[in-house]
Design brief:
The chain has 300 residues and is of the alpha/beta class. It has 2 domains: 134 residues, 3-Layer(aba) Sandwich (Rossmann fold), CATH 3.40.50.1370; 155 residues, Aspartate/ornithine carbamoyltransferase (Rossmann fold, 3-Layer(aba) Sandwich), CATH 3.40.50.1370. Helix content is 35%, strand content 15%. It has 11 helices and 9 strands. The strands form 2 sheets. The chain has a 5-stranded parallel β-sheet with strand order 7-6-5-8-9. A 4-stranded parallel β-sheet has the order 2-1-3-4, with helices on both faces. Helix 5 crosses helix 11.
Amino acid sequence: MQQDHLISATQLSRSDIEAVLDRAAAVDADPEAYSDRYDGSVLALCFFEPSTRTKLSFETAAQRLGGDTIDMGSVESSSVKKGESLADTVRVVEGYADAIVLRHPSEGSAKMASEFVDVPLVNAGDGAGQHPSQTLLDLYTIRENAGLDDITVGIMGDLKYGRTVHSLAHALTNFDVRQQFISPESLRLPRKVRYDLHEAGAQVREHTDLHEVLPELDVLYVTRIQRERFPEEREYRAVAGEYQIDNEVLAEAKSDLTVMHPLPRVDEIAPEVDDTARAKYFEQAHNGVPVRMALLDYLL
């Protein structure tokens, strides 16, 4: 990977992706071989929005590489509360760390912040924009369960505000993957994302009914309807609970369908699915550690 920062999945070529996934598989197979690789290195965690999986897996990844982490903490307990700009925050943090992981509610914030620092910066989610490290662990999970060529992937739920969706859809254009997008009309892919996918050679097929495409899917990537992204509560309520997956729904699917979810979930996947062979979303979350270890290994 010839990148100083990882801001968007659009930066990643097929060879970039395969290099990280291959390294992640090596880490997964023998984590001890990487245990002191970055002894003395420091990773800064700057999260302006809540996070469980991304933050903890990056922290675990750094520590398992022999490094350490520093944490900005909540916005309320930082100088951001005093009016400090994002540019000034990352300039200061750069002096304390060898790399920065940034999550921020404003789309485009990671790209802007990366222009003010020389250490590698990873976008851990910029509003409804991108989440490229999530995409890498998603691709790793897909590759481990269904392969990454000659498959059909259904992406369902909040396609308008879902940054994991935007990143994954872009990255999948590097492979022989048929993409099917399922959402309420009001949560379709943004026009810009559709345009970019067309420019990358993808055939974008959109649906409002999962049953139209479920039997042909090899992977079903389910996303949460994100209450916090809606400008008005009534807009959220109009689509909340629109799609719900349970074993009865999945009876129409292939027996080896891979069901994924970036988590957290609300009610879009019933708990009864958890104990089936199709459920891969907890495995997906666990894959965040080896994949982010591999990513840090390249960026550092």
